[in-house]
Known about the structure:
Elements: H1 19-32, E1 37-41, E2 47-49, E3 52-53, H2 60-66, E4 78-83, E5 88-94, H3 103-107, H4 113-116, H5 122-129, E6 132-135, H6 139-142, E7 149-151, H7 157-160, H8 167-179, H9 186-213, H10 219-234, E8 237-238, E9 243-246, E10 267-272, E11 274-275, E12 284-289, H11 296-314, H12 322-339, H13 347-350, E13 395-398, E14 401-403, E15 419-421, E16 424-428, E17 433-435, H14 444-454
Parallel strand pairs: 1-7, 5-6
Antiparallel strand pairs: 1-4, 2-3, 4-5, 8-11, 9-10, 10-12, 13-16, 14-15, 16-17
Helix pairs in contact: 9-10, 11-12
Amino acid sequence: MGTGWAPSPLVGLTQADVLPFTAARRDQLSAEYPGIRLIIPAGTLKVRSNDTDYRFRAYSAFSHLTGISAQDTVPGSVLILEPKKKGHEAILFVHPRSPRDSEEFYRDRVHGEFWIGRRMTLDETATRYGIKTKDISSIKKFLNDDSDALIVRGQDPDIDALISKAKKKEAKFETFLSELRLIKDSFEVQEMQAAVDATGRGFNDMIKIFPAAIGVTRGERIIEGAFFGRARLEGNELGYDSIVASGAHACVLHWIRNDGDVRNGDLILIDAGVELDSLYTADITRTLPVNGKFTPAQRDIYDLVWKAQQAGFAACKPGNKFADINRASQQVLAEGLAALGVLPVSAEESMKPDSGLHRRWTIHGVSHMLGIDVHDCGAARDSEYSQGVLKAGMVLTVEPGLYFHPDDLHAPERLRGIGVRIEDDVLITETGCEVLSKHIPSQSDDVEAWMRSLA
């Protein structure tokens, strides 16, 4: 079994384009923690059912600091920044490939190439990603000393067991790794634009399939499947479970069951994003008339949400606070609801902190950071994120919405069952912002024209 195999080297292996950027990111981390060993595991496989695992996705900070693509990442890998006289040396501990002359090739369903395909050798990994590599089997001995160390705990229990706990320091370490991603470098912006572009093509695919979904049991899943096909074709995965919410399902913020019927005359809210092999993801929402034409009531709500989003865009500029985006959009929503006769008080009264009556129909905030996680930088301090100041290089969403549940007796009857959200991905620039998803139509007339063009 172990004989008669030809060599199978990777031909034409080149350095990844991300190398200068990952090196710079590691330098930032190194400068913050001089003299301390830093341990960032990729994470391990997670069981889905019995002997079947979920598709592996590496811990975000590991991917950010190494640049290793989803297809090249080996579960159980660990990045260590080892202190030296000046800065740190990056060392990647990884399970190397299992060649055909090894028993692992045939018998190991987790690492054996007979089961999962070829992986890179240690040397190939070092060449591709510019990081010194060692066999993961040597990590226990490597860590068996008294060096001052910090670890991202909870990603790999075997590695956790080797490092003494330092709860407060570890929490601050995770916070720094999260805040390191607040400002995107040019490579990240390029990847996010590519994810947005692929997502736009996915929306085209979904619109084209609308006729096949109408009148079919669980038609939402036909549309969901069209987008998943695009994600797998052009990226690695979905950035998150797609929301395909037809009719009143659009009023359920995280509708991922996607088991409803798609009916002529209804709106359908679709929140979806392609995640690239680099793990950067888009996050786009469009609310579309199933038959390509808004009714007057649908248009009233849709146009109000669109105007609120434009106000949110205007607030996206360096020097403004992150909270200003939400405040600007909420102001427009409150004024619009008052003009429609929905609010029982004035918009000015509703916008007071102790009132907020308009929030009954617009529950959520309108923005979050976006990047290698769909809700990126989640461990960042409030002072740097939710209460922080916008800076050039940040990428975030702007996504106001209005939702009138079918059983809402405080809503006008003509609006009940209508849910609308419009979400775009935005780069903060030196002078304002760039809407990365501006090529995906969002204004109501443009939406109708877009849908006619794909009919």
